[in-house]
Structure formats: C-alpha cells, structure tokens
Design brief:
four-stranded mixed beta sheet; three-stranded mixed beta sheet
C-alpha cells in the first residue's frame, strides 16, 4: 500500500543547531621576535611622543615644591623629606626668576665638603645658616661639574623634552611658562625621566608588546667589562661597588665623584645583597648623624626607612618590553643586572653582579641617537657591553 507521510505523521527528529564559530583560544606561543617588528615599535613610540606635549605627561593631580634660594639647607632638606621628594626647583625671589634645581646630589656634595674641610661641630653649626644660594660655590671648591640650567615650555613636545634630557644627561627637566601680565617666569612642573617613561608605558601598550629583544642584544645599560684597563683594581669596572663592611663615606665619595645615585652592595662572590642610595645618606643627615659617615654600610642600613621598596633585579636576557611594563606597575629608578640561570649553566653564579640599567639608559635607547636596526650580537670576548662609556664620566649613569 502506498502512503505518504503527512506533517503530523512525520517522526519528530530534533533540529540540528546552527553551527557557531567558537572564539579562538589565545595563543600561548611567544610572539615572533623579529627585528622589523621591534624597529616598527620604536618608530611608533617616537611618533606618539612627537605628537604629544609635556602637558599630556602631567599626572591628574600633583604637588610642586618650590624653594627660595635664601632658605637655609637644613630647612630645605626637611621640606624635601616631609613631602617625600628628592628634588625641587629653586626660586630667586629678589629677581623673580627660576634659579635651578635642588637635588639630593647637592646635599651629597655639601656633606663631602664638610667632611673633608671641617669638624663635626663646625658642620652642624654651618648647616643651620648655610643658604641654598651658596651651593654652587661648594661644587666649585670640590671641582665637580655645575648642573646645567635647563628649562622647557610645557607646550613643547614630549619628544623634544626627552631629547634635551638626553643631550644634557639630566634626570629632570623644569617646565616654565610666563605670566601674561607681569612677564615673570612661572614654574609649572618638573618632567622627570620616570614620569616620561611611565607615560610611554601607559600610552604605548601595543608597541611595548613588540619590544621583545633582550637587554643584552640591545646593549642597554652599564656592564662589567671583560677588558678593564691594565692599572684597574676593580674587578667590576666600570661599575662602582661596595661591601657591607665598606665605610659610608667611601660610598658618599663615589656618589659625589661619579655623580651617581646608587652603588650595588656585593658579597665576596660578587652576588648582589643590597643597594646603597643617596637617599640613605640623607636619612642619616635627617637623624642628625653627620658623624655617621664613619659607620659601615651594614650599620647604616639598619637605620634605613622601613618603606624601602627593595632592590629591583633583572637578567641580561630580559626584554625591553618587560622592563617598561615593570615601570608601569611600580616606581623604578634603576635595575641591577645579575647572572641568571643562563649564565649559571655556563659556570657563572646566580645573582652575581653583571651591570646596572638606569632610566637614562632606557630613555637614551628609546629616544636617543640610536640608529634603528643597528643591533649586533655581542662577541664571546665581551659578552656584555657598556653603552657609550657613560660610567667613566659625570653623566649620571645610575640616575
């Protein structure tokens, strides 16, 4: 018998669901570390900075501490410490004009001057009346370089401001405008290396992800030389180092002579155990311990502020992108490069000092006179390379 199935008689089979494309799972493979992608990212970062002004780098809220040059050093130092800053613009109230910057290094020079030329009683008496306007005379007597009188307008591009920082080896750049009614200078803010690099890390996220080449390959930083001068006795040349038994004043002398702001503290095997900074010396002075420069580093570290963030370390195999991402997350002024697992496999010792990378080094590579594409692998004789010999001159290698 022939029969046809009506719709009501048809068996009820479940309808097939329409296919949907599942989202692709994120790849866990590392991105391609090509030189072309790295170069393109550098170009993109520089173009961003050329199109943005210094105003764009200002934080949403900030405070500006300005000190009169007639202020005595002790009160100025207390002002810096109470406000949690390590530098401040100076103002000449008699001439109503900008008069430079007061930095921790100025205080270091002053400490060395009194340590060399006066006794404790004289130093403690003079520091009560010594005025900021006389600091440049101290620098001349010590034979150290006078810092340049830098300034820039806030409407200048960030790229131009960064170039000026690099060219003058400065760590901070005062931003000045002019009062439209009086024509007098007005201090608007201070652009620091850290603020500039943090702006890059926040606003160039995609480009930073392409900076996968290692710090070793890019030759960023100051590293232990494999070929020191014949008369050199420092096994970590050209990096200044100290041990826990070193007197504080020996390190203060390094700060002043080399215009650096930190010295790695190492053990007998060269393993980094701590870092002594200019701010640590200022802490001793704040406590009135002018004579404490004869203490050992170990004793001085016991008086360090409990909020010390610790030593930030990295290996030469870490990438520039990783470093910039770290700057985005925490306040970093320098990184100590140590031997890692790769060097340990070749007979090295994990944690041993290899070099120091400062914000100046990073900024110089991102913005400076680095020919894009000119990256070469280091040779066996000199696995690591120190950039432009900045350690040998007063160019603030540990800024």
């Amino acid at each position: 018998m022939n029969a046809t199935l009506s719709p009501t008689q048809a068996s009820r089979t479940p309808k097939r669901k329409s296919s949907t494309r599942r989202p692709r799972a994120p790849s866990h493979l590392p991105p391609v570390q090509s030189q072309e992608a790295h170069d393109a990212a550098l170009h993109a970062i520089r173009n961003v900075l050329k199109g943005r002004t210094c105003y764009d780098a200002f934080p949403v809220s900030y405070r500006l501490i300005v000190l009169d040059t007639k202020l005595n050093v002790k009160k100025a130092l207390q002002c810096l410490l109470l406000n949690g800053v390590v530098s401040a613009p100076l103002w000449n109230s008699e001439k109503s004009k900008f008069a430079g910057m007061l930095t921790v290094l100025d205080i270091i020079h002053l400490i060395q001057y009194y340590y060399d030329n006066a006794n404790y009683d004289t130093a403690t008496a003079d520091v009560e009346t010594f005025r900021l306007e006389s600091l440049r005379d101290i620098e001349k007597s010590l034979g150290v370089a006078t810092p340049p009188m830098l300034r820039e307008h806030p409407s200048s591009t960030i790229y131009d401001a960064a170039k000026l920082l690099i060219q003058t080896h400065a760590r901070r750049l005062p931003l000045l405008d002019y009062d439209t009614e009086t024509g007098h200078e007005v201090i608007v803010s201070v652009l620091t290396q850290y603020r500039l690099l943090k702006f890059i890390s926040i606003n160039c996220t995609r480009e930073i992800q392409q900076l996968h080449l290692s710090l070793r390959k890019l030759k960023i930083g100051t590293y232990v030389s494999q070929n020191p001068p014949p008369d050199n006795t420092n096994p970590y040349w050209p990096i200044a180092t100290a041990t826990l038994d070193s007197p504080v004043f020996d390190v203060v002398h390094m700060f002043s002579e080399r215009s650096i702001s930190a010295v790695p503290i190492i053990d007998q095997d060269g393993v980094v155990v701590n870092l002594y900074e200019t701010v640590d010396v200022i802490t001793l002075v704040r406590l009135g311990a002018y004579q404490a420069l004869d203490l050992t580093i170990s004793e001085a570290l016991n008086q360090r502020s409990p909020d010390f963030p610790g030593v930030v370390i990295c290996t030469a195999g870490d990438s520039l992108g990783t470093l910039l991402q770290l700057i985005k997350k925490r306040r970093v002024h320098r990184l100590v490069v140590v031997q890692g697992e790769e060097e340990e496999k070749r007979g090295g010792k994990k944690g041993r000092l290899l070099g120091v990378i400062t914000l100046s080094d990073v900024l110089r590579y991102l913005i400076g006179n680095v020919a894009i594409g000119e990256v070469t692998e280091p040779t066996e004789e000199s696995t690591l390379f120190f950039t432009d010999k900045v350690q040998q001159a007063a160019e603030s290698p540990y800024s």
